[in-house]
Amino acid sequence: MRYLLIQIALLLFGSISFCLTLDAQVKTKDSLSIQLKEVVVEADQQNISASVSTYFPTSKQKNASQSGIDLLNRMAIPQLALGAGTTINTVGNRPVAVFIDRLPATADDLKNMRTTDVKKVEYYDYPSDPRFLGNAHVVNFVMKRYEYGGYLKALGSERFIANDGQLNLFGKFQSKRFTFDLGLGASYSKSTHDFAESFETYRLPQNDGSEKTFRRTESVIAADKHNRLLWPTLKVVYNTDKITISNIVGAAFDHTPINNTTGTVGINPDKTDLTAFNKTEAMRQNSLSYSGNWNFILGKRNTINFNPVYSYTHSRQSSLYREGRAEFPNDAEDDSHSVRARLQFNHSFGNYGNLKIFCQGLFYRASTRYLGTADMRDRLTTYRIGPGLGYSLSRNKYYIYLGVGYNYDHSKYRQTIEHSTQPWADASVQYSFNGKNHISAEFHHMTSVPLSSYRSEAVVQSNPLMSYTGNPALKPYKSFDYGITYTCIPNSNFSFSVYATAWSVRDRYAFVYTPSSTGILRTIEQPMGGFTSLTTGAYGRVRLLQNRLQIAGLIAMPFCHNGEPFNSDHVDMNYSLQAYWYFGGWNIGAHYFSDKSAPGSEINGLWTKHQETYSLSIGWGNSSWNVLAQIANPFTWNWKNSSNEMNSRYFDRKQFGYGVDSHCYVKLGASYVFGFGKHVKQNNEASRQNGAGSAILE
After folding, report:
1. pTM as predicted
2. Residues 137-151: pLDDT tens digits?
3. Cα Rg for the chain, rounded, in angstroms?
4. By the 8 A CB rule, do 320 and 280 touch?
5. What's the CATH code of the domain at 425?
């Protein structure tokens, strides 16, 4: 049935393309002249060169969008995946760094963006511009430039039935060379349907040499979870012809005061009766951060860029699990400091390319206190120093980038010290045949520093049969990314791309489930078997009815090989479809996302599947107001939204996640922008800033 639907979708795209050709052939002479005028206008809406792809949003798309991500989704850029979330990925599921006027931006920046001020959107693979901070895949919003003034924006939304909402307030003001941004955001959620149920199999060796199998089933009867988040941010930008200095100071206060579940546990074959359980959890995380981006043009084709980032996070977690008469309290408190910096010198040789020489560093320190089933204090210090250089060459039809360097990693956990030196390399080759056809190939090799929580020696017991700990001797693992993408835009009404991307890991560390006669201890060991994730797919977009109707679809086939200790292979097919119809100031949108399967991380051995989702929306907008009403999953009234499965020699787990995203809900949202003075140059907006990652073992 699934493959039949795929064939129907492909037939639909073929039929639409045929109709477009036939429609062009039957135009009268008068209508042909009008059509030719339209083609001249639309020809400027998109262009692919060897080094950059440029897309111009229509006024209908900008007025209908409440945020930058909403605008990208409506533009249906062929190199970017379709989606309705808060992250931006390539069609091959690679992360994309977002910039606004070549300054780093976050998801909250995009929410606060004034979309009607977007002039164009640029997409880069391995850009040579040093202001993009060495990111492999980049989206850059280019905004209108003004003289002085500013604007105020309010954006709010509520999901009924899901019972969550958010409100963002933002202000921008520019005076001469300074721009001041102030952002404040808040969100909340209250749910009695946010929990997970698990089905576990334990194969435990007995004292007589035999092996006994236990099946543990955890079923939830009731749940209650409350969360609230508040973030203020201040940003100051100084800008001249040769100097741009951006400084952002932010904070975030994330609090989950209630996260409780009650239910029953069954353990077969030992127990025939069900045992009651209840779990109470709470979490508070407060963070402060600073982010700087300093760009200096020195003359003689030389530039210097400096990007310092500091963040501090204080985390506190408490948990009490009761199963029958047994109790398992686990509390943890953590203070984490993170410093990252990148210093880069760039020289342009004109037609002979660009050279960049840089050094990037990372410093992380965490102090964690465990109380309960584990009683100990962890102290961890990690730092990385990575010099490197890159060279790019751009000609009319091709663009080449090569980068090499070394990373020196050093970590200290208590008395255990680990250090290593590993090379990294980047390579990208892009060729544009004629401004409408583009092919790119890439390769990336690097080493990844283990999360601090994976190094903990604390042994935490979560239930009578399961405990877990970390490994202080972990070393960075090697990873390899490679892929190829072909993009074609034959005219303004049709575009498509096909791609294949892969990611593989060597010397990886992974969870290992060590059995005893009384239960399982989950540890982390290295090196384990290889891990490879491969995704192939195709994307297509068509415009009809003089751009009033746009239809886009994506088909992807993920494959994953997960070696020892999980020894599994998985393959599936995912597809999505979206359509937008514009009439006057109104717009109607429809989205469908199939069951989506994907591998978990390289450490956990999971294969995860998310339930299908679908929605219908109607909205109205102009340069100031935007309102949206959406109904999602109207025929789905169960709360199950995901499942994941893991198998190993002594322990298997299948878990079902429940939540609001796949259940029916109604969303109402509105935004209002008030401008004053003469419009200013729009830089990226102030947004919630992230703190340092917690080192608490999970």
Report:
1. 0.86
2. 999 999 887 677 788
3. 27
4. yes
5. 2.40.170.20
